[in-house]
Amino acid sequence: xxxxxxATCLTMDMSPTKPREGAEPLHLxxxxxxxxxxxxxxxxxxxxxxxxxxxxxxDGAVLVxxxxxxDALTVVVEGTxxxxxxxxxxxxxxxxxxxxxxxxxxxxxxxxxPMPNDLIADGPVIALSIPHAAIRAELSRMPSLxxxxxxxxTERARRYTEQLKQFVFDPPLVRAASLLLGLAPxxxxxxADGPIVIDMRLSQxxxxxxxxxxxxxxxxxxxxxxxxxxxxxxxxxxxxxxxKALRALVAGGINLSVPS
Length: 260
Prior knowledge:
Elements: E1 2-4, E2 7-9, H1 24-33, H2 42-51, E3 53-57, E4 62-64, E5 72-78, E6 81-86, E7 92-98, E8 103-104, H3 106-111, E9 118-121, E10 125-131, H4 132-141, H5 146-169, H6 172-183, E11 196-197, H7 204-211, H8 215-227, E12 232-234, E13 237-240, H9 243-252
Antiparallel strand pairs: 1-2, 3-10, 4-9, 5-8, 5-10, 6-7, 6-9, 11-13, 12-13
Helix pairs in contact: 1-2, 6-9, 7-8
């Protein structure tokens, strides 16, 4: 195990390296997809890539450590990462699952305070680390880019507020249904309303972390959803046979019982 500035790298190659030759298009595309960079001009993205380092991480590796100084934004190039918070007792809650659609470390870029959450690899992950100094140089070169940072920060705040509302007002069954839809491709909004397979492997223990409840409680919720024909769960592979009914459950909130 080695400490790589803002991250713990659990790989055979313990040190981040410059992006390897031939991989630049893949890495540049990953930066271009990640907010707040998705609206930035390509020359600015190319300069960020030149300043970036790339690292590989095993399942469970901590890419970003909450509560510590963070001097870079992390962009996931390949794989999936989990945004989590933990308690000294060992309890952990996962509140966001992302592939390569977001840069992590935005708040410290703005306020220079410690990162509020961990970022953990869920399976093998390749990530880029873009120094805050390089990003600030681009923002100084083109101050209008700060608007994209503000828009991204606002969107995150709204999303976390919505998630907090779910924690406070929705019963666990509804939150479980909402979460499963959120993990499905396109948010479970398939026009055909046919069966949807969730791409990531999802254990009931992981679902418990995402919902902030016990593993035993999750097992009961899963049995209820399976019995209602809303979920198929086989060895971590989750299928939503009737996403329309699942969306109806979420829309009805606390007043709607599971269809029988």
